[in-house]
Amino acid sequence: MKNRLQAFSIPKVDRKSEMGYFRLKVSATGYQPIQIERFSPHSHEGNLLPLSKLSHFYLGQEMLDTAFRAAYALHLSNFCCTLQRVGKRVEVTSIESDIPYEPYPSHRPPKRPKGIITFGADIEYMIRHKKTTKFHALPLNSQVPKFEAEADQALLRKGNKFYKPIFELHPRPQTTGEHLHIEMLKLKQKLEQRLKKSAYQVVTDPNPTGRFMLGGHLHFGNVQAGFNKTSQLDVLVTLPLSLLDHENSQMRRFTYGGLGSVRLNHFNGFEYRSLSSWYNYIEQGLPLFNWIEWVVKNESLPYFFIPTQVALAYTKNDRHSILLFVEKTFRWLKNNYKSSADLVAIESFYKWIHSQRFPLS
Asked: Could you identify which of 34, 165, 171, 279 might form a hypothetical disulfide with 204, taking C-beta atoms 3.0 to 4.6 angstroms apart as the criterion?
């Protein structure tokens, strides 16, 4: 178990939970929390914690994310996971399957989402001065609604003041991958036009400076979150795209960019968070957007098991091992999805990945 979790960049400690740390005990079915207990430092007694108040606690959401990722890595559909926060580090102390629990009185099994599937995104970037190489940051509570709406929640402290150094492109949700591509292209062109005559430039490296990491999150509406769909996005989108990632992407994979990073959203769907920033692929990226739509809408796709050595290769940025697994997977796809529409989608994305790896070939 420990080796499997470490391959997915999830810290697992062998000791029992330390009484001096803030702890959570999460019981869940898939991505549906059934019961969350919080334990204050030095406390033996836990208190039920409503999901709506989880973010009130430092790294509370990240602890829940880690519990889901651990269950996903171990393929435990019903689980109980205990975690502790050690400074800024979240550790799994135990995780077991099929643990009995007392559910919240209001808990009901999730219903299958109804409505048209929507596709959205938020893609993170930073702004750097071309000459001084210093990064631009927005003062906290700047009272400029336009810029506040574009700023991420990450904070930078300078003395007694706080700043927001990360910004996001937020397209409106669309009903197809092609329409999302058009919307993203408009936003990118607008941003770069705005900076064209200034002394600043857009930076989208996965780890441009210090502790700051940049991702390209995907948002799906009216799509049920589940380990099957997460595995499909990991294997068919993230692993192929990791072949194109910047060299400094490895650090992000130890934090927010690990495989299986998913959060439920408010649109009867979920947010997929594993991808690094794909800002630089927007212009020529229509095959990518079409492929994401194909993967999300295709209900016949199976659960894709990720071997431990492949998960470790992703974490360590071993591109050779990743490439072998990706090629094997796409050979399987071509042999099992033979309609003309499916083959066009598969071939278009596969050729696009190859063209981005070797742009002169």
From this structure: 279
Q: Which residue has the tokens 């937020």?
A: 170
Count CB atoms within 10 A of the CB of residue 105.
5
- Helix ranges (H only) for the chain are 2-7, 60-74, 145-150, 177-195, 227-233, 239-242, 249-253, 286-297, 308-316, 319-336, 340-357
Q: Phi then psi for 160, rounded to 5 degrees?
A: -100, 10
Alpha-carbon distance 259 to 311, whole Å? 8
Q: What angle do CA 126, 128, 207 make, to 5 degrees?
A: 50
Helix and strand totals (H; E) in the chain? 11, 15
Domains along the chain with CATH numbers? 2-97 (3.30.470.20), 118-357 (3.30.590)
Tokens of 257: 């960019």
Half-sphere exposure of 296 (CA within 13 A, CB side): 26
pLDDT 10s digits, 153-174: 665 666 667 677 889 999 999 9
pTM of structure: 0.91
Whether the CB-CB separation of 83 and 90 falls below 8 Å is answered with yes
- pLDDT tens track for 51-71: 999 999 999 999 999 999 999
Separation CA 198–CA 200 (nearest Å): 5
Strands (E) in 245-289, as ranges, are 262-264, 270-272
Contact 41, 19 (CB under 8 A): yes
b/e for 110-144, b at 16 or more Cβ within 10 A? eeebeeebbbbbbbbbbbbeeeeeebbbbeeeeee
Residue 317 exposed, middle or buried by CB count within 10 Å (0-12, 13-18, 19+): middle
Reply yes or no on whether the pLDDT at 149 is more than 70: no
Asked whether the beta carbons of 311 and 5 are under 8 A apart, the reply is: no
